[in-house]
Write a structure and sequence with these properties.
222 residues; alpha+beta; Archaeosine Trna-guanine Transglycosylase, Chain: A, domain 4; Methane Monooxygenase Hydroxylase, Chain G, domain 1; 5-stranded mixed β-barrel; 7 strands; globular
């Protein structure tokens, strides 16, 4: 079943369960926030990565990726100049069916995607391998950053673990987008293990690496 949802194109990928703070100042997205505030909760919109174009500027957004993430606006703090600081969290993946450009901001006809783990036995094995690879990756980052990275116990649930790793590993947007678009957690975890092994090897082979930062950018330049 499809639905219409306001869209917020960004040069980032949001995963379900992950938080994303946003600083809203462009007029069309200020209008989006005002429209959301007039609606009952949950106040939701779609975060979708830009394939071609820019969030701001003359050219603007020309193409979007097919799979995005529904975000719930948990808090909207108005500023004196009319801008907003938003606290949002990812809820569920969606597939973009059609794009509506008739409003000041984009809207899309979307279908929400199910969260599937894949084969249970294979997923449980993939969880163990991904957890091991992720810890090695974090250790390599800590060694190159000259610090210590402390993480809580990693989740054992395949879908959640796949999103935690997808959000934390430092990779380019196209690779992160491919993880979001994976059909199930098993496929995602297997791909993530390969990326983690690759990135860990690169970290071990280099002589210097910036200190890691696992948080999203504090604000998005819309």
């Amino acid at each position: 079943m499809s639905e219409m949802l306001p869209l917020f194109p960004l040069s980032t990928v949001l995963f379900p369960g992950m938080r994303l703070p946003l600083h809203i100042f462009e007029q069309r997205y200020l209008q989006l926030v005002r429209d959301l505030l007039e609606q009952p909760e949950p106040r939701q919109f779609g975060i979708i990565a830009i394939k071609k174009g820019r969030e701001t500027g003359v050219a603007g957004v020309e193409a979007l990726h097919e799979v995005g993430c529904v975000a719930t606006m948990r808090q909207a703090e108005p500023r004196d100049d009319g801008r907003f600081d938003l606290a949002t969290v990812g809820e569920q993946r969606f597939r973009l069916l059609t794009l509506d450009r008739t409003q000041p901001y984009f809207r899309g006809e979307i279908e929400r995607l199910p969260e599937e783990a894949g084969d249970a036995a294979a997923a449980a094995f993939a969880v163990q391998r991904a957890q091991t690879a992720f810890r090695r990756y974090l250790n390599a980052l800590a060694d190159r950053g000259g610090g210590v990275i402390s993480v809580a116990d990693l989740p054992d649930e395949p879908v959640l673990l796949s999103y935690v790793i997808g959000a934390a590993v430092i990779i380019d947007l196209p690779e992160r987008q491919s993880l979001l678009a994976a059909p199930d957690a098993l496929t995602r975890l297997r791909a993530e293990r390969g990326l983690l092994v690759r990135e860990t090897g690169m970290l071990r082979a280099t002589t210097s690496r910036p200190a890691p930062d696992f948080s999203y950018e504090p604000y998005s330049p819309n």
